[in-house]
Amino acid sequence: MIYFISTPIGNLKDISIRAIQTLKNVDVIACEDTRNSLKLLNYYDIHKRLIAYHKFNERASANGIIEMAKKGKNIAIISDSGTPLISDPGQILVQSLVENNIPFTVIPGASAVLSALILSGFAGNPFCFVGFLSEQNKKRRMELDNVKNFEGAIIFYVSPYNLFSDIKFIYEMLGDQKACLVNEITKMYEKTLHFDLSSSLEIEPKGEYVLVVNNKPKSKENNISIPNQLQLLLSQGIEKNEAIKIVAKKNNIKKSDVYKVALKIK
Q1: Could you tell me if 171 and 194 lie in one domain?
Q2: C-alpha to C-alpha distance for 78 and 19, rounded to whole angstroms
Q3: Of 122, 211, 201, 206, which Cα lies nearest the Cα of 174?
Q4: Which of 22, 25, 224, 254 has the greatest CB tally within 10 Å of its CB?
Q5: Are residues 117 and 106 in the same domain?
Q6: Are residue 123 and residue 193 in the same domain, yes or no?
Q7: What's the whole-model pTM score?
Q8: CA-CA-CA-CA torsion for 158, 164, 167, 171, nearest 10 degrees?
Q9: Where are the beta strands (DSSP E) in 184-255?
Q10: Angstrom distance (rounded) from CA 59 to CA 75
């Protein structure tokens, strides 16, 4: 059996009894970073064979894990912190397990995503998780284009090196929204900062952050084409000249441009 096990995101005590028992009983533990995982494993007196499973050897390591599983080995998959696959390696392995009809399960636990969502105060809304934005401008723009019309909490992981540039980019793409920045989750110096995306943050970035944006996209009406906006107003009995004025003002464009569109409407 393959076990995907959630580990603490800060406080070493945030791990379930079931997770500890499973880690003690498996044959092999696949770690994102064996050095980092040893801190947790030594704390709970767990001594097992460790293998590396990270983004740089993911496919080759997945093949090795598949072979061990076929031989009847029980294997635990853990990341440096939190739940495997959530902005961490593991997807290639899961796909291979499904394709090879090899059983696997999840032992849930700590999650920075859900903890930050609750701390933000935006948990009453629908939410979506983006994770780390791409370093490539074209791809990161596409990532935000995919969620800019989502109404609810949008959750990002942000490194301290990209904190200010990421927030600026998100502001440019989503507009001025209420947001919450959380770091050191579950640790002694856990911090939660509520702010507007347009504001200047006077903080010294330290440690990785979770940014929760309470996204309220502009009215869907603003996404309606100019001809359709005109048609809608005319159908409501509004005179054509008045409709042209309304559409021009609403879309911040010249009345003459809207007039040209109006001429094509029968």
Answers
A1: yes
A2: 10
A3: 211
A4: 22
A5: no
A6: yes
A7: 0.77
A8: -170
A9: 191-196, 209-215
A10: 16
Q: What is the pLDDT of residues 26-64, one digit of tens each?
A: 999 999 999 999 999 999 999 999 999 887 888 888 899
Do 120 and 210 fall within a single domain? yes
Same domain, 104 and 192: no
Tokens of 100: 């090879």
Q: What is the enclosing helix (H) or strand (E) of 235?
A: helix 226-235
Q: Whose structure tokens read 């894990």?
A: 65
How far is the C-alpha of 224 from the C-alpha of 24, rounded, in Å?
58
Q: Any idea which residue has 């696997």 for tokens? A: 104
Eight-state DSSP code of residue 222: G
Beta-bridge partner residues of 151: none
d(CA 103, CA 130): 28
pLDDT tens for residues 61-115?
Answer: 889 999 999 999 999 999 999 999 888 888 899 999 999 899 999 999 999 999 9
| Bridge partner list, 76 | 3, 29
Q: How many domains does the chain have?
A: 3
DSSP three-state, residue 4: strand
Domain of 57 in residue numbering reads as 2-110
